[in-house]
Structures
1.
Amino acid sequence: MNTTPTTPFPDRFLWGGATAANQIEGAYDAGGKGLSVQDVMPRGISGPRTPAPTPDNLKLEAIDFYHRYAEDIALFAEMGFTVYRFSIAWSRIFPRGDEDEPNEEGLAFYDRILDELEKHGIEPLVTISHYETPLHLAETYDGWVSRDLIGFYERYVRVLFTRYGARVKYWLTFNEINSLLHAPFMSGGINTPKEQLAEQDLYQAMHHELVASGLATKIARDLAPNAQIGCMVLSMPIYPLTPSPADALAVMEADHANLVYGDVHTRGVYPGYFLRTLREKGIKLQITDEDREVLSHTVDFVSFSYYMSIAETASPERSGGEGNIMGGVPNPTLETSEWGWAIDPTGLRLVLNQFWDRWQKPLFIVENGLGAKDELVEVDGVKTVVDDYRIAYLNDHLVQVGEAILDGVEVLGYTSWGCIDIVSASTAQLSKRYGFIYVDRNDDGSGTLARYKKKSFDWYAEVIRTNGANLTA
Ligand code: BG6
């Protein structure tokens, strides 16, 4: 009898896609929604922010998921999704962030999303805060620099768990929590310009977010006992640029700066290497006894995004190149995407093994994909995109997920990023497309918003139908 499995993916593996409210919903001021930091970031992470929303900000309308969600979720269902990751816009629920009572219209919107998902048998995976802190909290409190944010976040989370706790099993507390130091305004609603921000304040903000995340886990045990709470980190395998011990040490230090967040979420305490960093920087965090107790509530699983790896070096002449927001230097052995992101499927297997070995928690890949320029063409009278490059990228990464599963790593599921075209977070463009579904909207805001299935739509449907057996090594 042939017992060789045709696929390494377990039977209950969750397959789907992921988006974030600010990149997909639009309707930025509908239904009582307040402004979020994204509404004043028309150029993405590094572009200047505006005093108020401006018409060139594509996120204000995005792809109008707010009104078209039923049609879009039906398309996800047609691909066979068993999970859909989306975020709740904090400023729909608490328009300013510091109110006592939530906005019922905002809550009702997410009820409708959950109804639609239930109708199609799709498991929701909810990000509580995805780069969309209410703008009022940024402008009045300097975002997570203020300890007050813990209380506002707690109030928000209590409302979410009470309202949706019985319907949503998987929750993520903060999107890419380890990007805070690199993108303080987008990631932490910190209004003070990065150049003027004291490191003391930045690290204190990090501590506040970690406490808030622990609090969400603690509260869930009472309010939503069936919930599984995960942290979410940006993963980035780091290779030494040369085999020199100095470069290996530079890798260890860069790794530590990324991994400390997962360490705290899974171990419940700050690791020694991080305490050393604080000591050497002369930073004294305000940590209360209550904070320590809250941090001890560790997560049920670890989720992460994976797009690329980087190289690191100790050599000052060679460093300083354009790696990405997390630093690092380009790796000369790898090809890059049209946006300069290194393409490295093996890195995904490495990261899965590293996280599993280090944390021994089930893992969930909640973002991965290729941002590329697509061309809408007609094939047999039907408008589509022949995105073989995207199919190749996803195939190669999923093959490595399969390898990691064979390595013994426990993986709960995979949600491909931007399963329908959405506005990019780093550049705020629509032309940086990730989706299986093309959306007719351009960088200048023109377009009908019509949806078209790309070639990858049928390919991914087949991946899901066969539970990964159609992937080609
Ligand atoms: C992740 C973010 O960093 O990368 C997403 O969680 C983002 O919000 C994704 O969209 C891809 O980045 P970009 O800049 O191509 O949209």
2.
Amino acid sequence: MKQNTAKQKKGKGNSCPFYKKCGGCQLQNMTYEEQLSFKMAKTIKNLGRFGHVEEIIGMEKPYHYRNKVQAAFGYTRGRIISGVYQSSSHNIVPVEKCMIEDEKADEIISDIRRLLPSFRLTSYNEDTGRGFLRHVLVKRGFATGEIMVVLVTGTNIFPKKEEFVSALLKKHGDITTVIWNINGGKTSLVLGEKETVLYGKGYITDILCGKSFRISAKSFYQINPVQTEKLYGTAIDFAALTGKERVFDAYCGIGTIGLVASDRAKEVIGVELNAQAVRDAKNNARLNNADNVSFYCDDAGDFMVAMAGDNEKADVLFMDPPRAGSDVKFLKSAVTLAPKKIVYISCNVETQARDLSYLCKNGYRVEKIQPVDMFPHTNHVETVVLLSQRRPDTQRHKA
Ligand code: SAH
């Protein structure tokens, strides 16, 4: 195992009392070493046919790593509860403390639950659509200590909201922003459209790989910052930038990968669908004085088609799509843009394998495969794959 891998063997999982009901940590019945072996096997099964899989990069202290915690609010026998949905259901399993969540976030959520009755505030009932508090979302910048609390309500009335926020701040003076989000719809999405800032700036800032990042309630931000630095470090190493390259950062979120790469590239172009994330990305470019970076709000596939249509070229393409992976529209145009290197980051080896097959049939070769354990105790595995363009002249030599 790589040097950062936890070696502890003691106490085979199951230390969490909610293990079975919650379903969030599917691998808790294994030691951490066994989990890493499981993830290696999963990566080899799906990606092994493309080349050698490097040893997975594990986490030194694989606990309380989640910087973003979400709790659903409801009732049991007339008592307000908060916790997680039981796997594949909407029954709430009350959870006070979780071994993978940020401890501070768990404390804040418990205190909000305790505050509700004194303000005569109720929790939301999904069946009737009545009641008040539906979810609480907490995001904490591990490097800066900044904390965002999002109160998601089912109604658009928040009685005594100023007093409620004051009472919360009295208990947790380190909260830096409080946002009220309204979500009255029949939906499994946590956040609704409407957002009001009740306290602070409405976003938090965190530091990753030496760069500052502004993060909004709805923007995607990697949930395990300790491992994210290793993930991005691997991706940037794979790209082997020299300062002369034109780099694309597709599915760029708040611009993290592109901005980390920007010091070593001539130009960075990022594309992302979520408007709030793009706004953050543009602010992040300013925050880091990166004037060689531009961000666009668009579907990554449509954007690539337009770029390919304009005969644009790229030297390096970073792509980090969601679990569903990329699509042929995107991949076809990616091939037309003809980057010499593609660094494909994925949280789903199955869709990644599908997309790699397309790229390998269309002029690319897999050079390196590096799994990183971003989500200890769960069955998810993150992978970084380096592809290089098979050069036309090499092919001629072969013929
Ligand atoms: N690279 C970023 C974000 C990765 S998560 C990081 O490391 O933080 C995947 C991102 O893809 C999310 O921000 C999501 O909003 C975005 N996304 C999803 N579908 C997309 C699409 N069709 N086009 C562009 N971006 C998309």
3.
Amino acid sequence: MSDCLFCKIIAGDIPSKKVYEDDEYLAFWDIAPKAPVHILLIPKKHVTSLYHLDDSNVSVVQGMMSKAPEIAKLMELNDGFRAVVNTGDGGGQEVGHIHFHILGDVRKATWSGFPLQDN
Ligand code: 5GP
Ligand code: ZN
């Protein structure tokens, strides 16, 4: 999608600090980390949110479930991580390209997600 921020990151039109890439997925640092490790995992295929799953995209989104722990291990989060998927306005989603937030060392996090905060 030409007007999608994360599609522009996938295309390389906007720079990002990549930590993982394959044919289907990209993972990169959040520009404003809310925890000591804060990675965004996205599918290269544009899917707006969990409310936009259909037969054409559900498998790639399901694949994110196993990709998330791979990324967490890559980031050496061996004692665990938090995955967050904000969905729609009511879920606090700001970028309309589905993404998993992968957060590590969450005891030092500045964002719990409950309630939404500016930081
Ligand atoms: P959402 O609120 O949609 O769940 O999360 C969007 C996330 O994208 C936010 O945590 C925000 O900091 C991050 N973000 C917004 N713009 C950019 C950007 O240009 N580059 C990167 N790496 N992250 C971004
Ligand atoms: Zn997109």
